[in-house]
Amino acid sequence: LVSLSQHWDVFKYVTEVFILVPALLGLKGNLEMTLASRLSTAANIGQMDTPKELWKMITGNMALIQVQATVVGFLASIAAVIFGWIPDGHFSIDHAVLLCASSVATAFIASLVLGMIMIGVIIGSRKMGINPDNVATPIAASLGDLITLALLSGISWGLYKELESKAYVNPLVCAFFIALLPIWIIIAKRNAATREVLYSGWEPVIIAMAISSVGGLILDRTVSDPNFAGMAVFTPVINGVGGNLVAVQASRISTYLHMSGMPGESSETAPRKCPSPCSTFFSSDVNSRSARVLFLLVVPGHLVFLYTISSMQGGHTTLTLIFIVFYMTAALLQVLILLYIADWMVHWMWGRDLDPDNFSIPYLTALGDLIGTGLLALSFHILWLIGDRDSDVGD
User: Fold this and answer.
1) Of 76, 60, 69, 58, nearest in space to 32 by CA
2) Which residues are CB-contacts of 210 (< 8 A; sequence separation ≥ 6)?
3) Is 92 helix (H, G, I), strand (E, B) or coil?
4) Rounded Cα gap, residues 340 and 201, in angstroms
5) What is the domain-level CATH number for residue 153?
6) What is the pLDDT of residues 363-390, one digit of tens each?
7) For 59-89, how does the pLDDT look when each residue is reduced to its tens digit (9 = 90+)?
8) What pLDDT does residue 332 have?
9) DSSP 225
């Protein structure tokens, strides 16, 4: 989708939309995957067994992610405007309002759709006796990328078309979604579990959005260079796979800790200050085994995506052997770093009385976006320097 839409007028003339891509894709980590992890834990420890409990969890959590989606979408658009304005020194109020309307509308609609899908998946998994931790977060990650990219491309293109004849449409879209905020806040405050997140859960969401926006700036600067246009099609893939895998691991560790008590309580699963790489990947611990399995999934997973991209003739990059080696090295290094950080971060947060379901996944997926985009950009630059250049670049 990114590869196709990068040639649309809105992506050509309002290049700041590229900055929104990692930030809005990061919403799946900030919101949907956090929702999936939170509801999976609630399901596993018996907090959704009765219809009344289930309804309270659904309404409270859906209202909460609408609040977060609207606010983060608005802040992401401001970050895109600032990051786009500082290097170029050019500011357009029409483009700024377009970015705001596109970002808020995409974030709101994507969160609504994905939130409903997540709830259905978790309830269905529970009824079939499947651990929701293994199902919900991967579905949130994969569907999140597809739905968010489709919505951002379609909405930004539609609103860009309206700029010339109906300039009032963009501010009207912004005002509409922001005006709905008080309704979602009131509903979220009625649920004790979501009330706490509504007050205290903003720091990881906003910091994660800022981290993802830096990744978006790297993407914007790189894709704007015709020599590296091919990076657009691979960025969502490497970031999606990395965020997917680390979210599964974080959700599993969090559920494992919740089964032994409450955050902050000391037990035999007590948090480690700084785990060694050996204990993270090579111990007999159940979480170490899952880390090894997830790491081993990187190569076959990416090979499938590379084959699909090649078959569909997507992007502007010929899949040479040296390109695949550099790409795989970047992907493996990204996931290795993320799994190690997840092991440390989830235990560290648990020891400081913070629920990892609410706090860890936004940071981890945002770091995945930044590390993945950075390593991919570095790989493209190195390949260009050593002479692995495509004859079809810019086609």
Assistant:
1) 69
2) 79
3) coil
4) 23
5) 1.10.357.20
6) 888 888 889 888 988 888 888 888 766 5
7) 888 898 899 888 888 888 887 778 777 666 6
8) 93
9) S
The whole domain housing 304 covers 203-394
Cβ-based neighbours of 1, under 8 Å, separated by 6 or more:
146, 149, 150, 153, 236
Task: Find tokens 């500082």 and name the residue.
Answer: 86
Q: Which two tokens stand for residue 63?
A: 């209202």
Q: Which one-letter DSSP state was computed for residue 274?
A: S
- Which of 135, 157, 190 is the C-terminal boundary of a domain? 190
- Measure the CA angle with vertex 266, ends 264 and 271; round to 5°: 75
Q: How far apart are CA 197 and CA 178, in angstroms?
A: 20
- Residue 320 in tokens: 């040479």
pTM of the model: 0.69
Q: Which residues of the chain have pLDDT under 50?
A: 1, 3-5, 270-271, 391-395
CA dist., res. 32 & res. 136, Å (int): 9
Tell me, yes or no, whether 69 and 215 share the same domain: no
134 and 262 share a domain?
Answer: no
Residue 168 DSSP symbol: T
The number of domains in the chain is 2
181 and 300 in a single domain? The answer is no
Cβ–Cβ < 8 Å for 74, 202: no
Task: Please tell me whether residues 114 and 153 are part of one structural domain.
Answer: yes
- Confirm if 316 and 7 have CB atoms less than 8 A apart: no
Domain end residue (candidates: 190, 212, 247)? 190
Closest to 134 measured CA to CA, from 249, 27, 243:
249
Q: Are residues 120 and 244 in the same domain?
A: no
**Is residue 321 domain-resident?**
yes
**What are 341's two structure tokens?**
């950080």
Does a structural domain hold residue 195?
Answer: no
Please check whether residues 218 and 354 belong to one and the same domain.
Answer: yes
Residue whose C-alpha is closest to residue 153's, from 313, 18, 309, 22: 18
